[in-house]
Amino acid sequence: MKITFHPQRSDKTLSLSRSGDTLTINGEDFDFANIPESGVLPVSAIESEFIGGPIKRLDDQLYIDILLPHSAGASQACRYPRSVLITQDGKIKLLNGGLV
């Protein structure tokens, strides 16, 4: 699962975790197992304010855009996050809206 973060100034909170093809956002599960190879799930089909674009599967890898809230005083790392490849199940650690 490759996640690209799109930072935005917001007081909202975000928690993420992964279990296989399921991404849990703030306690709500989004199961993307049914997206076939080279398939695309349009953002309009996903009811989450944190999904920032269509979900794609290429070379058996899910590509997901996530809107990443951050505080007004967030660090450079939080305001300019890097994309991450998530290879293990579990919580995806975020700090002040940015990645740890």
List keywords for this structure.
4-stranded antiparallel sheet, mainly beta, 11 strands, single chain
Overview of this protein structure:
This protein has one domain. The chain is mainly beta. 19% of the residues are buried. The strands form 3 sheets. A 5-stranded mixed sheet has the order 5-6-7-1-8, with no helix packed on it. Strands 4-3-2-9 form a 4-stranded antiparallel sheet, with no helix packed on it. A two-stranded antiparallel sheet has the order 10-11. It has 1 helix and 11 strands; from the N terminus they run E-E-E-E-E-E-E-H-E-E-E-E.
List the helices and strands and how they pair.
Blueprint (H helix, E strand, L loop, with lengths): L1 E8 L6 E4 L2 E4 L2 E4 L8 E2 L13 E4 L2 E10 L5 H4 L4 E2 L4 E3 L1 E2 L2 E2 L1
Parallel strand pairs: 1-7
Antiparallel strand pairs: 1-8, 2-3, 2-9, 3-4, 5-6, 6-7, 10-11
Put the structure in a nutshell:
With 100 residues, this protein is mainly beta.
